[in-house]
Sequence to fold (160 residues):
Amino acid sequence: MRNALTIDLLGVLIDPLSYYVLFAGVLSLAVRVVMALLKVPERKSGKTRFVSFIDNLKGFGSNRQIDDYLYEELDDYWYPFHLGFIEFLSYPVLMAADLWSFIAAWLAFKTVGQWEHWKKSRHMFNRFLIGNALVIILSLLIMVGFVQGSGYVPSVTDAR
Fold:
């Protein structure tokens, strides 16, 4: 196991680590594309859908004004991408270690932080739910191929 990472605290093995990290990055980018597409119908300005999608995907430098969208959402500077990447790296390990309560606590923490803003913007709240659902579902896909831990996830090499 030349390229494996063992986390002794949780009893979880990630093999190979390089593909795990690469796959987490690719999935984070895929979720960013989906979220940028979901934001396009909320535009109010005269931009085309394609230009609006590219502006959403870029995350900065689009000269967006507060009134360009239905709600106050300006440049995000790819912070959601980086947060999603960290979640893609950590969720499968927590799932394999059967520590779902940590994921639930993290989601509650993220939800409480924006609760007041979401009272005004149901669109943004729905995108938040969709994005988190995608990360959790895709994390389960990562876990099957790369993470072996407690009896929750069988090893890929085990006979079925």
About this structure: The beta strands are 5-7, 12-14, 147-148. The mean pLDDT is 77.
